[in-house]
Amino acid sequence: MPLHRGDSYAPKMTRAAIFDPTDPAFLRDRYPVYRRLRDEAPVLRTELGGRPCVILTRYADVDRLLRDERARVRSDEGVPEHLGTGPAAAFYRNSLPCLDPPEHTRLRKLIAPAFTPRTVHAMRSWLTELVDAQLAELAGRGEVDFVADVAAVLPARIACRLLHAPDSDAGELLRHVPALNAVLGQGGLTPEARTAADEAARFYFDYFTDVVGTLRGTLPEDDLVGALVAAADSDGGLGHAAVVTALTGLLMASYHTTRVALAAAVFALLEHPGQLAALRADPGLATNAWDETLRYDAPIHFLWRDLAIPLTFAGERLEAGTHVVLGLAAANRDERRFADPDRFDLARADRRHLAFAAGAHYCPGAPLSRLEGEIFLPRFFARFPDAQVTRQPERQLDLTFAELRSLHLDLGRAA
Ligand code: HEM
């Protein structure tokens, strides 16, 4: 699972010459450091948040570990003690990112009907409507902050539509996400954070219980919630708590990543006018543009796993129990895998980047995310052909989430 904002990253200083994750210079410009790590210390033994760990940054190593089920997301059985026994603990117990096989495999199989090509295809028309409505709101605005005015708004509307919640609930639905996210992090929780997490988990449980109760029996099975409800009702099925947790998990997993990716894609295209011209000439390149953005500027820089058995990487044996931090963004720029990796190139044939991870926890929302990019990018640039960046944007100085804090654009005339 991702390292979370609440986790602390004070490193052991032995390899600080290459990698100091608290150094603002590194956090502003990470890729040269990732390159050095891949070349000089592909298996970096260090400490993050006071916990010894090993950081992997080469594509082959990160990919291999993600696909190896002996690399676990839980270091021990059961729910961590600091989560107590209340709603936050119940949320953790049913959350995909916190589960290992066989429970993880069972749950993934049960939610699979919610993410078939059919359910994703059924979203195309309402996604297009939402995008068009959002772009119509921008017309005539002139200067906008794309992050605040578009990237933060559209994924909230998409999440609400996906989960059958009214738009007017978006603020309330998103407000509790950070408190519950802390449950998925590695660090312990203060008593206040635990109370907030319990409140958040209770809020979502009640909210989605209502949604499911109101809609049961009314939704087609090619609807994501409809498919989950059907899975709940089938023999040996998901069970109510798991359905409600899955809906909460979808909200948490889809909103932030989509918001970050939208801003990253628009920024990358505006910074590379030749590539933008290629997209304009051939809107069919939109999914390539989306995937190339995710490779070039991955929304999640690091995940972690714990080894259940000893494994060897780049000639170094790692003992069972080793806490391994996986550099997704670093792996996506590995020259051993991608030719000329620092080039943003829509024509790149190799689209097997690791921004959606790989293996058992591979993002089930990837096809939906690709559809969002495919619909949004050509429409945005057709509507605002003269859009320009007016200020160099700043990034969040966070090890895992390096998103753009704002993206000021002059939209020019609307077509
Ligand atoms: C650009 C957008 C997105 C990115 C970059 C992204 C990335 C990821 C990554 C890296 C993971 C693996 C986490 C881990 O192994 O701990 C993941 C898991 C997940 N994602 Fe996404 N995601 C995106 C959009 C979405 C969307 C739109 C949805 C749902 C509608 C979604 C639902 C999920 C779920 C439920 C999981 C947990 C899967 C599991 O642990 O088995 N994601 N995502």
Account of the 3D structure:
- This protein has 415 residues and is an alpha+beta fold.
- It has one domain (13-410): Cytochrome P450 (Cytochrome p450, Orthogonal Bundle).
- The chain contains 18 helices and 10 strands.
- The strands form 3 sheets. The chain has a 5-stranded mixed beta sheet with strand order 1-2-8-5-3, sandwiched between helices. The chain has a 3-stranded antiparallel beta sheet with strand order 4-10-9.
- The mean pLDDT is 92.
- The longest helix is centred in the middle third of the chain and has 32 residues, at 240-271.
- Helices cover 48% and strands 9% of the residues.
- The protein is globular.
- Bound molecules: protoporphyrin IX containing FE.
Task: Write a brief structural summary.
By secondary structure, this protein is of the alpha+beta class.
Task: Give short descriptive properties of this protein.
415 residues, alpha+beta, Cytochrome p450, 5-stranded mixed sheet, 3-stranded antiparallel sheet, 18 helices, globular, binds protoporphyrin IX containing FE
